[in-house]
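writing this on my phone so excuse typos. first protein, seq and then structure
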Amino acid sequence: MPERLAERILTAAVAGIGGQQRPGQGVMADEVTRTFDTGEHLLVQAGTGTGKSLGYLAPALASLVENPDQRIVIATATLALQAQLATKDIPAAVEACEQVCGETVSHAILKGRSNYACLLRVREGQGAEQDALLPEPGEATGVGAEVVALRRWAEDEAEAGRLADRDDAPAHTPAAWAQVSVPVRECLGAQRCPFGMECLVEKSRVRARESQLVVTNHALLAVDALHGGTALPEFDALVIDEAHELVSRVTGAASVELGPAQVERVARRCLSWLSDDVGVEFLDAGDALQLGLDAAEVGRVTDPDGEVTAALRVVRAAARAAVTGLAGGKDDETERRQAQAAAQEVFDIAERMAKLDERDVIWVSESERLGRQLNCAPLSVAGLLRNQVFDNHPVVLTSATLKIGGDFRSVAASLGLGAEGADDWRGVDVGSPFDYRTQGILYVARQLPPPNRDGTSPEVLAEIAELLWAADGHTLGLFASQRAAEAAARYCREHVPERLVLCQGDAHLTRLTTEFLNDEEASLFGTLSLWQGIDVPGDTCRLVIIDKIPFPRPDDPLMQARQQAVAEAGGNGFMAVAATHAGLLLAQGSGRLIRTLTDRGVVAVLDPRLVTARYGTFLKASMPGFWMTTDRETAIGALRRLGGSAG
């Protein structure tokens, strides 16, 4: 029986890593087994510390032992979890499976093309752009030196039969990696590439096709769905870990951008093979796009006769002419073929944007680094996921945060589950090993003024400094904007000078995080990447400060469009989109506090709307079940006792 086998594998795997099995882990394994047997989709919330990786790996291996001709794919959002699975959890589970039943399950990691070195780029380089980066003889610094080191490493990897995965590469910058890898669009394909027989990407795909268990990421899963199942080998069941990230990652994979600099850069790549008229037209199209963007308002584009849409038609026509002009030539004209692929990409993006399809949201954005550019994202990915993922296989979706507002319906709807009354999924909360009510306090600063657009108020800054002082540092500050994080850091450095306050932007985030972890009395302030991407168990983090409810920006065109679409369909756009977005981030952010059975601390939300607004109940239900207070002195006293400072 698969269920009994999964239980035995789980017990052996937990023992093998010296762990202790959690009750929720066993419940999860049973539920996953049921999904593999029945085909009914499962949303399973497994709190931090449950051991959810082994909770789905054990039944996956049991199912593959029972059905050796089948394949199960696991998709993660982050490289960190992918690495953990590859180096720790899967080897432990596979070894346990061998101990229990004597069967070995084959497994592989599969990533997107640009995560592997391209032997064509490594061995031949591509044009003056790469040559200009290479160091002069005797030099050993800069991007050029990184490129040389990466080339040498990639050759060693290929010779040893490995895959030259970027995660295993020597230290490098993105600019250096771009010189030894190839974008999907510009790949010649194994049949045309002179090194196709040795291609490391193709080897990774062969290994995946030969394996029963394949670990990939959300982005490649999205690409597979978008392109009709061409990115992944065929599979029979799917586990999506970190499932709270899935909608965002699929949206990102299905989104495109276009700016004048991109058009000009591609045009210049193509000039050598184009007639003068076609080349000038392509270059001029970049200027036309710039003029259209300058004449437009920042925000959503909806007018088919507006300046931006007219400029897109100009770019589309110029790119089409360039693609035609680059056709033909010899098979070994690598640079020409790659230039044609880049021009084709510009054409495809301009074509998609110029249509103003109701299923897409197109908008003008502006930033200091990139200036103005056009963005296009799908209004919804629910249909894509429903038709290309959930209709084909049983799917397990798991995360520590899937119950938003107290149940699974918000997340299920965003994923396209339960459409038109379909009863094809179930949700299970297997709990957490942590006792949130005794381990943590949720302090809501009801007495503070509600947030406004004028920046962080003096009262909020004073509250942050007071809380940080009471916690004696040990603080993770999660802010809705970089400006707010920087203002709070400046204030605390002035008013609590004896404590180190690190702020995102001071240095690379990895370095700041390491410094925060190594200095328990330090504090770290930052924005969105800290809400979900940091794990600080132990006394490093006694206090998590959330300056305001993390609603989407009111001028975010994609979120506005999604709210409007829900409202037009008869729903509550604010609750379905904005409140659900905020609830998910609050769940993730407040979850930074308690990471082990011995952690203690306070989550301080400095936005009174959490207890005064009607939607506050929905948001609080999304957060861990801390004991709650609105009394400032209670929170201050608890923090001082944690540091042994209470009188």
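second protein below, same order as before
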Amino acid sequence: MQHKKDTLNYGIIGNCKSSALINEDSSIDWCCLPQFDSPSVFGKILDDKIGGQFKIVTDASYSISQEYCKNTCILITKFQSQAHAFHLLDFMPRYQKESANYYAPPEITRFLRHVKGRPSFKVIYDPKLEYALGITRNYVKDDFIVSIVDDEDYDTLYLYTDLDKNNLLSGSEMILEKDQFMTASYNEKIEIPTIDTIYYELEVTKTYWLHWCYKTPTFKNYNAEVLRSAMTLKLLTFEKSGAVLAAATTSLPETIGETRNWDYRFCWIRDASMVIKVIAKLGHVKIVENFIRYIIDLIPDKNEKLQIMYGINGEKMLTEKTLSHLEGYKGSKPVRIGNAAFFQKQNDIYGILMDVIHYQIEKFSKNKERHEELWSIVKAIVWVVQNNWKLADKGIWEFRNKDQHFTFSKLLCWVAVDRAIKISYLIQEGKSAKKWENLREEIHSDIMQNAWNEQRQSFMQSYNSTHLDASVLLMEYYGFIKAKDPKYVKTVKAIEKELMHEGLLFRYKNKDDFGTPSSSFTVCTFWFINSLYKIGEREKSKILFDKLLSYSNHLGLFSEDIDFKTKRLLGNFPQAYSHLALIDNAMNFNSTN
């Protein structure tokens, strides 16, 4: 982990209902309440001037540092001068009640812990509700500060505190002589918080995370990185429905000043399924069960086709809109909410989902109550694949122009049928498997014949193309081809030669709808590192892995993209895809093979 100026130096806190991004200087620059996909209440990350923030300010005599409270998602920002010091502990409450349900209110608590002296500070409390559309007005009341917007939409936010409310709101200087608190709540609270109730919530939230980490296996190598990644993936789960978000943000650009800015606060079946599989390897069964429930609830009709993505409550319409009043991250417009990719056809999602269903049935075979429902989905998916695998689609990278026969999509159609056959053997002694084996063989032969380019000595991005693509590295990962197969080894070498740049990987180099990418999609480099390991180049793989880990931010977090030259983090943040691949790679270096 290294500190880089001008990168996404944020920590994330959350409670599986929503989350907040907190800058290394203590400023809450992104938070949507009451849930992940709600309009922002603090959005400075998307507009420096009008986005809204919540920050503690001290004079230049204080040094500021930031770290997570060990094995938790409680973020500590430390302010220290020679004579004075205090710590800011930020968290979103999450703990189990006596009823066994989890208490996870839509609120952020900022606990000011007095350490020494008489530290002085100011507060910038500047919420901008509803994505800063309209004017947010703040009013001091007896028990709280209320922020109200009632222009195009109506919304409110309540701040409870034992600091002087007028001084806080006016940004006046205050002295900290004891522990104090501020709680920004989406709901008006029935019981007014006190320092004692806040301290209690801090401790039980800490206990919740300590317990969650305790249930996660300990690894000899890279344990801290695995644990932080696992907690980050947990923070990106929406407990109410079982959905898993791709990232906590919208419109953080893949390249500064360009227009590849998308809303990632949704559940992509592909990303989520991969997250679930990794989390299952770490023993967190509940997340797997919740996601399977989410999928079952999404597919009520046997003939209903899967979308590539859904809203976190299962919404199917994710209409894309532009917030033209916001300047965007570092001036990168447009800011988008919603995502037009939801209606795209991507045939790979069937295989990825089937892979997770197979993993769940294989690893948790005693949990048979859902097997009948899952079996119906399995048969429906095979039917869809049978009728669609020969058709062109948009592919994993969501090309918005014409459909093509993407190798990755064909590969995952093969995975769908292969895992369906395996599931058949697990739950019905292979009765249905026999009729599917020819289909599996047909898809396999088709890929070997049409995706391999003899001249380039590599599998290609799509049939009859000459373009390389990082996604074909996953052919081995999904069991389609053996790691030591000469064609796979040659593919890894060809991809290294053509797509590796400045220690990072291009996903592809051919021009897409937006021109040639100028940043590296983080997960692709992780895939390449994994492929090197699998073909036997373990030492080289480890050197590259350590190098890639050094590009994380100061807290070990990764976004979607990394700039080739400066190594700054770009794209939506934190990115589930990046962290699940990190865990997968770390497991390689803990295996005894």
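The chain has a mean pLDDT of 93. thats all i got for now
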